[in-house]
Amino acid sequence: MRSSEKDDQDFPSKLTVYVVICWILAAFGGFMFGYDIGISGGVTAMDDFLIKFFPTVHERKLHATENNYCKYDNQYLQLFTSSLYLAALVSSFGASKACTKYGRKPTILVASVFFLFGAAVSSSAQNIWMLIIGRILLGFGVGFGNEAVPLFLSEIAPMERRGAVNILFQFFVTVGIFFANLVNYGTSKMHPYGWRVSLGLAGVPALFLFIGSIVITETPASLIERGNETAGKSTLTKIRGVDNVNAEFEQIKAASEIARQVKHPFKELMKRSSMPPLIIGILLQVFQQLTGINAIMFYAPVLFQTVGFKNDASLLSAVITGIVNVLSTLVSIFYVDKVGRRILLLQACVQMLISQTAIGAILLAFLTTTGSLTKLQAAFVVVLVCLFVMSFAWSWGPLGWLIPSETFPQETRTAGFAFAVSSNMLFTFLIAQAFLSMLCNMRAFIFFFFAVWILKMGLFVYFLLPETKNVPIDLMVERVWKQHPVWKKFMD
Ligand code: BGC
C-alpha cells in the first residue's frame, strides 16, 4: 500500500491491511457505546415498554391535556437511561488499572463480555430491577471499552494520522446511535416485545467486539511498558509496515522506562506538572456534555413529540439527526490532522451557539404548554437540531475523546484518561437524569442554558487549549505543555 504522504522523517510508516483491521475491530467499542446511547430514547417512547415497567408514565402520556414539557418527567424512567453511565463512571477506574497491568487488548475483551451479558439480561428483563441490572452491566462494558479503545487507537496510529484513526471510535459511536434509531423505528411496530428486540440486538456488535478483541494486537507502548520489549518491537514493525522503526521504538522505550518507575499513577497525576493535561481532559469531556448533545441523543423522539410530531414521525426525525451525526463525523476524520483540533472546536462553538439559541427562541415564542408547533415551525426545529448535531459531530464529539487520549505522558496516560472518561460519564449521567425534569421546569429556557455553556467553552478553547496536531504522542510535554504561555507555568 501507499506510504503516507506526510511521514515524519524519523517515524516512517505504511498502511497495512492488518493495522486497518485492528483499527476497525477496536472501534466496535464505539459502536456499543453509541448503540446504548441511541436505543434508550426510542425504547422509552414505546407504549409496550412503558406499560410493562412504567405504567404511571404511560397513564400520564395518555391524558392528552397534560403539559407538553412535562409528560415524561419520571425519575425511574430517567434512572433506566442513566444507570448505565453511573456504572461506566465507576468502572473506568478499574479499567484504567486493567489497562496498565494487563494491557489494552484484554481490557477490550472484558468490555465485550460485559456487553454480551448486559444485552442478554436487559432484553430478557421481567421487572424493572432486571432492566437496571442489564443497563449496569452494559455500563461496565462502556467503562472498560471507552477507557481502552481510544487509548488503543491513539497508541497504535502513526503520528500523522492519529486524529483520524482515533476518530474512528467516535465514527462508530455515531453509527451505533444511528443503527439503534433504525432498530427502534422497526421494533416500535412489533407488539408487544419490540423493545426486547431493541435491547437484545446489542448482542450483535458485542460479539464483533469480542471477536475483535481476540484478533487485534496489543499496542507497542503497553507491551514495552510491561517489560516485553521484543514483542513490542516486532508489533511496532508489523503495524508500521516498514523495517526501520528504531527511532519510534527508542522513543516509546524511553517513555516506558519513565512510566515503569511510577508505581502510583494516580498519585503522580496529582502533581502540579500533571495538571495541564488533566484539567484539559476533564474540561473537554464536561463541556462536551454541556453542549446539550445528549439531551438530543437520548431524548430525540421524546423531544420531537414535545414539539408536536406523532410517535412515528418523531422516531423518523431522530433517524434524520442520526444520519447527520454519522456523515458529519467523516468531516472531522478528513480535517482533524490537516486544520487541527482548535479550528474545528471553535467553528463548532459558533454554529452550536446559534442553533441552540434559535431552538430556544422558537419554542419560547410558539410552543405553549398544551399546544403544538405548526408543521413549518416543527420542521424548522428539526433543521436547527441537525445544524447543531452536525457541528458537534465534527468537533466536540470526536475531540472530547481524542485530545485526552493523546495529551498525557505515558506514566499517567491510563489514569489521566480514566478521569476524562469518568467526567464524561458523570455529566452524561447528570444530563440523562436531569434533562426531562429540566425541560419540565425550565421549558424552552433549557436551550439557552446550553447556549451559555457553549459560549464559555469557546473562550476556554481560544485561550487555553493548545494545538496537538502532528505532535508525537510521547513528546507532548516538551513540544506542547512546556511551550504554552499558561500551562508552562505548571511544568517543572
Ligand atoms: C459523546 C456522547 C454523545 C455522542 C453523540 C459522544 O462523543 O460522548 O455522549 O451521545 O458523542 O454522537
Describe the structure.
Its main location: membrane. Belongs to the major facilitator superfamily. Sugar transporter (TC 2.A.1.1) family. One of its GO terms (cellular component) is membrane. Pfam families: Sugar_tr. This is Major facilitator superfamily (MFS) profile domain-containing protein. The chain has 492 residues and is mainly α. It has one domain (17-216, 263-490): Growth Hormone, Chain: A (Up-down Bundle), CATH 1.20.1250.20. 76% of the residues lie in helices and 0% in strands. The chain has helices at residues 17-43, 47-53, 55-62, 75-102, 104-123, 128-156, 162-187, 194-200, 203-215, 220-225, 229-240, 246-261, 265-269, 275-290, 293-306, 311-335, 341-366, 375-393, 396-407, 410-442, 445-464, 476-479. It is globular and about 70 Å long. The two termini are 43 Å apart. Mean pLDDT is 92; it is low at 1-8. Bound molecules: beta-D-glucopyranose. Beta-D-glucopyranose (BGC) binds next to helix 7, helix 15, helix 19 and helix 20.
The whole-angstrom Rg is 22 Å
CATH superfamily membership:
MFS general substrate transporter like domains
Total number of domains: 1
Mean pLDDT: 92
Count of strand segments: 0
Helical residues, percent: over 70%
Major β-sheet, in short?
A: none
Regions with pLDDT < 50 over 5+ consecutive residues?
1-8
Secondary structure tally, helices: 22
User: What is the 3D form?
Assistant: globular
- Report strand %: under 5%
- The first-level CATH class is given as Mainly Alpha
